[in-house]
Design goal:
mainly alpha, globular, 2 strands, about 75% helix, two-stranded antiparallel sheet, Sodium/glucose cotransporter
């Protein structure tokens, strides 16, 4: 694709402005690690919320979601429950408050508030740092694959070259350039640079979403959509079977559905809910979402930030996804038919932009899509070095170094993480393969230990360590034993193995120090199985009030999931002209917003 000079100038101006913003505000970040990684806990919650939403709006994710929306229609709204996307609702309702009360800088440092300074805590500390670094490397590889493919389609210059015996494709060369620019301002400015540039990036991404939404609303009719989709494509509800028949329109799509193992859709959704509840109770993984929570000024603002992330993310994002899907359905079908069984749905995005977006607007949209990658990448790059520097270097190697030395070590750690992530990216076959590895294999073993750490007083650092280790091993080994079985079906097996590791590790070792448990319980105030510790705290402080909001939190989570779901389907219904369903969804959005205002927002604790 050959884009015009004006569009190239707009993209270059955006890149220059991003770097300039990063460098301009970088002085604030150089005071100490608290400023570098958490913005000195001085950034307003709504700015952190926009930054968090920007980090979740990644180009690779958009391309994957367009694929599932094309294939499954409205039922695709359920498929991101694989992560699950509504873990953010659990965080919003209560987990952000619990996490922020610790006052920690990283998820690994938080463990010392739960397990004290025991041998088990040190083991659990190491395993969380390892998990955090591996997950960030995985996501950098994921982003590297997506942005390289994206850029090589739109920029026609051949940048391929050889590095010794290694051939660097044009696709990878573009990815290297964009990653280098992003790394430059992230390394220089830390959290301040990330948040500052992500505000600009979010504005551009939102413009790109509305521009694509406008194009599809003016270029495609409801009749064209009806002629392009099979029966049931517009239905969000489902039975035991998926019941989507593409054989008369795109026969190869039926093969795609069989490969996904989604034909028993009712069972898939049941398993997604089962997995999702446990995964969500575990809390955010040690990455940029957790870092934004720890960067807020207070527990109340941590909850507000998490809710605001949901409020500003989904409607613009799904307006773009629905628009790209519909344009692909109506106009890209001949190209897909020519591909046969090797359909590449990731080509829908470049096809639409190439054929429907005018010069000038094209540059802004491409800058917005590039911003979608850069914001996600920047968030990860800023998160991981905190674990290496604060939790390893400062904790075990040089605890008394001056602040400047920690900052310089953070620079080096950022560059190292990027280098390793990019190296891994060279060996990834597709966005889909790395997505499934992250969701199933990496995160599969995270759940059991991280649920128990919140809700059970007897759980200790050794139990956490062995639960994480057994879970991660099971996540990698079980799929190899049950070859060809859908990863989601194996989740209960992985969960049981991880839970066994938790219980064996806990009961073969003594409980954590009683003073540590009492301090954690009084500070964090979780609900769960804390009766022995609650009684000891009450004996010392009769005025203490435990957490009796379990029922209210469950209610708010259920309402919050429905609230989030309406923001997914509203833009889809708008784009496909399903106005009756759109009206019902808007009514549900208003009702759920009212309930959350009354039972969540108005009752948030001040501390």
């Amino acid at each position: 694709m050959q884009i015009k000079t004006l569009d190239i100038l707009i993209i270059l101006a955006y890149l220059a402005l991003s770097v300039a913003i990063g460098f301009y505000i970088s002085k604030r970040a150089s005071k100490n690690l608290q400023s570098y990684f958490l913005g000195g806990n001085a950034i307003p919650w709504y700015l952190l919320g926009v930054s968090n939403a920007s980090g979740m709006f990644d180009i690779s994710g958009v391309m994957w979601t367009v694929t599932i929306c094309f294939v499954y229609g409205l039922k695709s709204a359920w498929i991101p429950w694989l992560w699950p996307v509504w873990n953010q609702v659990f965080v919003m309702v209560f987990l952000a408050i619990w996490l922020r009360r610790s006052g920690a800088m990283t998820g690994a440092e938080w463990l010392s508030t739960r397990f004290g300074n025991s041998h088990g805590q040190r083991l659990s500390h190491i395993v969380v740092v390892t998990f955090a670094v591996i997950s960030v490397i995985g996501f950098i590889a994921y982003g590297f694959k997506g942005v390289g493919k994206f850029a090589s389609i739109f920029f026609s210059y051949d940048l391929s070259f050889s590095l010794g015996s290694m051939a660097i494709s044009s696709e990878n060369a573009y990815a290297l350039i964009i990653i280098a620019i992003t790394t430059l301002y992230v390394v220089k400015g830390g959290m301040y640079s990330v948040v500052g540039t992500e505000l600009l990036q979010f504005v551009l991404m939102t413009f790109a979403c509305f521009a694509i939404g406008y194009v599809v609303m003016t270029q495609v009719t409801a009749e064209q959509i009806d002629q392009s989709v099979p029966a049931g494509w517009k239905d969000i509800w489902f039975g035991w079977q998926l019941d989507l028949d593409w054989s008369n329109l795109l026969p190869a799509v039926d093969n795609y559905i069989r490969q996904d193992d989604f034909n028993l859709f009712g069972l898939v959704v049941m398993l997604m809910v089962f997995k999702g509840i446990f995964a969500s109770l575990a809390g955010p993984v040690p990455s940029y979402d957790m870092q934004r929570i720890l960067a807020t000024k207070s527990p109340k603002e941590a909850a507000q930030m998490s809710g605001f992330t949901i409020a500003v993310l989904y409607m613009p994002r799904y307006l773009m996804i629905a628009g790209l899907t519909v344009l692909g359905l109506v106009y890209f079908k001949p190209q897909l038919l020519q591909m046969g069984d090797n359909m590449d749905f990731e080509m829908i995005l470049p096809y639409v932009i190439n054929n429907f977006i005018p010069t000038g607007v094209l540059g802004l949209i491409l800058a917005g899509l590039m911003a979608a990658f850069m914001s996600t990448f920047a968030a990860f790059v800023n998160a991981a070095p905190a674990y290496l520097v604060n939790d390893i270097y400062k904790n075990y190697i040089n605890p008394d170094a001056p602040a400047k030395q920690y900052i310089y070590m953070s620079y080096a750690a950022s560059v190292l993480i990027v280098f390793v992530g990019v190296f891994v990216g060279f060996f990834i076959d597709s966005i889909d393969s790395i997505t499934k590895w992250i969701v199933a294999s990496l995160y599969g073993g995270y759940t059991a230990a991280n649920v128990l750490k919140w809700i059970w007083w007897r759980f200790n650092g050794h139990g956490y360590f062995w639960g994480m280790i057994m879970g991660l091993i099971a996540s990698m080994v079980v799929p190899k034993v049950f070859v060809g079985v859908f990863d989601l079906y194996l989740y209960p097996v992985i969960l049981v193995i991880a839970l066994a590791g938790c219980l064996v590790g806990t009961y073969l070792t003594p409980p954590e120090d009683e003073d540590t448990l009492k301090k954690f319980y009084k500070t964090v105030r979780p609900w769960g199985f804390w009766k022995p510790i609650h009684q000891k705290v009450m004996a010392e402080d009769p005025s203490f009030q435990g957490n009796n909001h379990f029922g209210r939190d469950v209610f708010n989570v259920v309402i919050g999931v429905a609230w989030q779901m309406t923001m997914v389907v509203i833009p889809i219904y708008l784009v496909i002209r399903e106005y009756y369903s759109l009206g019902i969804s808007i009514a549900l959005l208003i009702a759920s917003s009212f309930l959350l205002k009354k039972f969540w927002w108005d009752r948030l604790p001040e501390k």
